[in-house]
Amino acid sequence: MYRRGFLSGTVAVSVLGAASGCLDGGTGGGVDDPDDGDGTDAPADGGNSTPSDDDSTPAETGTDGSTLTIADREFVPTGDCGSDDAGTARVEFDGNEATVTGCITGRNGCQRATLGDVEYDAETDAVTVVVTTTAGEETPDACTQQLVHRAYEVTLSFRERLPSELVVFHESMDERTEAGRATSD
User: Fold this and answer.
1) Could you tell me how far CA 65 lies from the centroid of its own chain?
2) Ranges of Polar residues compositional bias (predicted)?
3) Neighbours of 112 (CB within 10 A)
4) Partner of 155 at 20 to 30 A CA spacing, among 12, 13, 54, 84?
């Protein structure tokens, strides 16, 4: 006779018990890196901020006889950008630093902006920055099959002086195109 009451009470308790793990306000969220031992979650940018592994590039002598050393470099993906900005880069000089902000196009939703290369040509006294797109480290099994536009910022610190010119190239979808250029006059 009391089976309906008993069953409905049992179902209610079971549902609440199952949901309590989701509702208990625990620490959850994020994926801890078992190797780092600090108990923190991965960075919000997916760990793509790439400061220089070494302190500087070797000094090279420019055409005027002065040396140029890239003391530090940092690359930070800054999210998505609009299609109107795709394929562009802006270079600004301030003191002994050059900052590049740009927007590169990737072939699908798994593509992320990454720093490909930074080179100094002593003959032309120019620094070339190459930004590429690559699949992220934690690539999902399936990606959206549409073009994506990824924003980024590159900061280069120079030890002695600025180069005469800084040129930015984008390498994406099997093409290398010039995205921006500026002189440090």
Assistant:
1) 35
2) 58-67
3) 20
4) 84
Q: Quick one: which H or E segment has residue 14?
A: helix 3-23
pLDDT digits (tens, 9 = 90+) for 57-92: 555 555 555 789 999 999 999 999 999 999 999 999
Long-range Cβ contacts of 40-43 (<8 Å, 24+ apart):
none
Q: Which amino acid would we find at residue 132?
A: T
The beta strands (E) that lie in the chain are given as 60-61, 67-68, 70-80, 88-94, 97-106, 111-121, 126-135, 148-158, 165-172, 175-183
Report DSSP letters for 25-74, one per residue: --S--S-B-TTT-S-PBPPTTTT-----SSS-PPPEE-TTS-EE-EEEEE
Which residues, 6+ apart, have CB-to-CB distance to 61 below 8 Å? 67, 122
Report residue 112: phi and psi, to 5°. Answer: -125, 150
pLDDT digits (tens, 9 = 90+) for 11-50: 454 444 444 444 444 444 433 333 444 443 333 344 444 4
Task: Note whether 54 and 144 are within 8 A (CB).
Answer: no
Which tokens sit at 10? 């049992």
